[in-house]
Design brief:
Shape: globular
Largest sheet: 6 strands, antiparallel
Distance between the termini: 21 Å
Helix content: under 10%
Length: about 150
């Protein structure tokens, strides 16, 4: 639980298992394996690195080898339609000298959550700062990260 606004949970799904236990606006980042997104009679493939904002009634099913997903939920109603942001999609932004890709703006979640993807070069990263009104989460995919 993050400041009472958001929660982050790692789910390990077996082959064919559906993601369960999401509430509010669920943002799913697929970290391993593969999955299919069902939004009715059809299905759309979801691959590692995809960010999925689950719409009302959508289900994420693990592929044959299973899947690992990070789910961040924030208060609010799920969008009517599911949104998928692929790894190379999003708005590029330079912040504190580093390149970030904006995957989801805080304005899209009533100010509860913004999702950015970035690769920090050795010795790089944002300038020291404090967030007074929002939470910040880092998921390190490889390497080490020091926070001060």
């Amino acid at each position: 639980e993050l400041g009472g606004h958001a929660s982050v949970v790692r789910h390990v799904l077996r082959a064919g298992e559906a993601l369960a236990g999401t509430t509010g606006m669920a943002h799913v980042w697929l970290a391993g394996g593969a999955a299919a997104l069902r939004t009715g009679p059809g299905a759309v493939a979801v691959a590692v690195g995809d960010l999925v904002v689950l719409g009302a009634g959508a289900r994420l099913l693990a592929g044959p080898e299973g899947a690992v997903a990070w789910v961040t939920s924030v208060p609010g109603e799920p969008p009517a339609a599911t949104q998928i942001v692929r790894p190379r999609e999003g708005e590029a932004a330079i912040l504190a000298g580093d390149l970030y890709t904006v995957k989801r703006r805080a304005a899209d979640t009533d100010g509860h959550l913004g999702i950015l993807h970035f690769a920090i070069p050795p010795g790089g990263g944002p300038i020291p700062h404090i967030h007074h009104h929002e939470d910040e989460v880092f998921i390190v995919l490889e390497g080490l990260l020091s926070l001060y």
